[in-house]
Amino acid sequence: MHAYDEELAQQVMDHLLHRLRLDPPPLGRLGEVGELSTALKDAIGTGPRPVADVLRTYTDDLEPTVVSCDHPAFLAFIPGAPTKAAALFDMVLSASSLHGVSWLEASGAVAAENQVLRLLADLAGLPPAAGGCFVSGGSAGNLSALVVARDTGRRTRGLGDAAPVRIAVSDQVHSSVGNTLRIIGVEPLVVPTADHRLTGDALRTALDAAERDGGAPVVAVVATAGTTNAGIVDDLAGVAEQARTRGLWLHVDAAYGGAALFVPELRDRLRGIEHADSLVMDPHKWMFAPFDCGALLYREPHLARAVHTQDASYLDAIHGADGDTPGEWNPSDYAYHLTRRPRGLPLWFSLAVHGTDAYRDAVARGARIARWTAERVRARDGLELLREPELTVVLVRRTGWRPEDYYAWSKRLLAAGTAFVTPSVWEGETVARLAFLHPDISEETVGGILDSLVGEGS
Ligand SMILES: *Cc1c(COP(=O)(O)O)cnc(C)c1O
């Protein structure tokens, strides 16, 4: 089973190259439970099966029911659109069993990942000492960072390991932050937002009130650079100033919006991000890396090391007897993980192959098509633009539609193979939401989607 099998390799490669050449790939469809359990019924037996048969199960029955998030018209949630270079190099990672736990085992992979982290840190304006690691995504990054925020906050205040503390978050914060706080036993101080944006003023008011309410001390604040639902960037500079004057840890969740740092015209919206004590960006979103790739950075990585380094006698070898040599880096020390794939390498490869200018242009394209779409919506009878897009999300009301109309519309577009667009809720109302990301989405396709909203065309 571990021997190289030329025929198996060829068949898998053939499939892979076929999929990579499809431009665009089929949009895909929703699978049915019955259909899928029938397809899988005899897939795994006690003995071998011909590779071609197994591959056919995958290509004919499974793959079509996975909606292609790299289809340019996948506009739901936050799409993914890996570059071909990044997607292919992800395969190198898997096929070479590359791992990225420690410098001892994987120095070359770790050095290249750190080169990318450095590039991202420079874009954000973090100091030279900043560093971290790649994790599976924004959720893992938020969890890992907020544990460091919690423990550092307790330590610097002379509180015990289990002392209750609070972390300030806005009422718009990503659901993964809410999950994190439940998991790590930290109560949120929820700061109400005016106009969906956390501001320094709102934070000040909430912190003043928190000082009087007799609750646990607030040790950190989470700001969002690009909310997932609407692409709204918090007042990072104002929040950072409050954090600095009150000695709070500033965590910036830029899982979606961080890529805007590549584009000089968008970067100004993220002003203040350079003050982050910890920062999360998801290259598997708007930086065109394959899943699963989240970048986690700390202003002072030693604080993360103090929290996350795992202690076990069999791990002594990776930490060395006299502490780390400068430059040697163990990614396992900066998040809650141990074994990990060096998932930053596909991004490294693609950045090296294409250069950062190509990234700047591809990121900018998403924002441009969002602005174009907003203008079209505004000009159109029957459609209402709910908010000027800051990044790449456009929220649209179809006059007179009820929630079920939006859901039926979404279903129709997917069934027709035109686009994958899911409704969302804005200020209590079901609306259409278009999240752009793939640079190859055309004005023509978007125009067709808008037509379908007002009942012209499909
Ligand atoms: C997507 C997203 C997350 C979660 O990231 P995953 O990679 O899905 O775990 C967190 N915060 C924001 C703002 C996001 O857009």
From TrEMBL:
The keyword Transferase applies. It comes from the Bacteria. Belongs to the group II decarboxylase family. Its cofactor is pyridoxal 5'-phosphate. Pfam families: Pyridoxal_deC. InterPro entries: Aromatic_deC, PyrdxlP-dep_de-COase, PyrdxlP-dep_Trfase, PyrdxlP-dep_Trfase_major, PyrdxlP-dep_Trfase_small, Pyridoxal-P_BS. SUPFAM superfamilies: PLP-dependent transferases. Keywords: Aminotransferase, Decarboxylase, Lyase, Pyridoxal phosphate, Transferase. This is Aminotransferase class V-fold PLP-dependent enzyme. The keyword Lyase applies. PROSITE patterns: DDC_GAD_HDC_YDC (PS00392). GO terms for molecular function: transaminase activity. It comes from Streptomyces lunalinharesii. Gene3D superfamilies: 3.90.1150.170, Aspartate Aminotransferase, domain 1, Type I PLP-dependent aspartate aminotransferase-like (Major domain).
